Amino acid sequence: MPVRAEPTDKAEIITQLIFGECYSILLVQGQWIQVKTAADQYVGWMDVKQHTPVSSEYMAAWQAQDHPRTLDVVQIVSCPNTRIPVQLGSRLPFFDGMTLRLGEQQLFYNGAATNPQNGHGPHGPVDQRLRLLQKMALTYLKAPYLWGGKSLFGIDCSGLMQQLYGLIGVQLPRDARQQIDLGQPVHFVAQTLPGDLAFFDNADGNIVHVGLLLEDQQILHASGEVRIDPLDHNGIFNRDRQKYTHKLRLIKRILAED
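Structure for C40 family peptidase, as requested:
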């Protein structure tokens, strides 16, 4: 669901809440509520009609653990009276392999999901997590660009990085300018490894773009659509337009071998 900059349907979407996420209410203004997302502390406005209340106990328990994520492009969670479509990367709160809990409601899910026992979680082997990251990154190819989007059906550059890293148990901040503060610098493009993040700035020096390194100095990023382009010390070279489109500022390694 959209989270907007102002309490009106005409305001820009600054982020999205995906199924299974939690938030706290900061302010109520008519039919709008100002919320802070629990995972990345992003603040914005949502329509109260889209609000699903949960108890403070549920919220505390939700925050205390990492939840499995869906791996299917689209699946259904259901109970006898409800069927809810969920997209790739959605959290499955308190999932036991068959059921999840949304507030007081028990729902069934029988699709593919990440599994900490299979090395997908934050304590799994780094190489195994990075393989999953690269595999799922390709699933997003051709997804349309949408400012503020975090969905396979509309996503921005930092939302894509946040969703992908979420699949392997790493919670990134929402914006590229925040994500750049994580990890260790990689000083040369030739030293990059799959899973590294590359950041790009504008003429004013502000971080405005981010992408995920793949093999052979290729980068997956959301620019018009999710696409793969070559990266060198200058930046991203767009094959279709035959020009550099993003100026490289810094490369960071988020996951490093122990």
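The mean pLDDT is 94.
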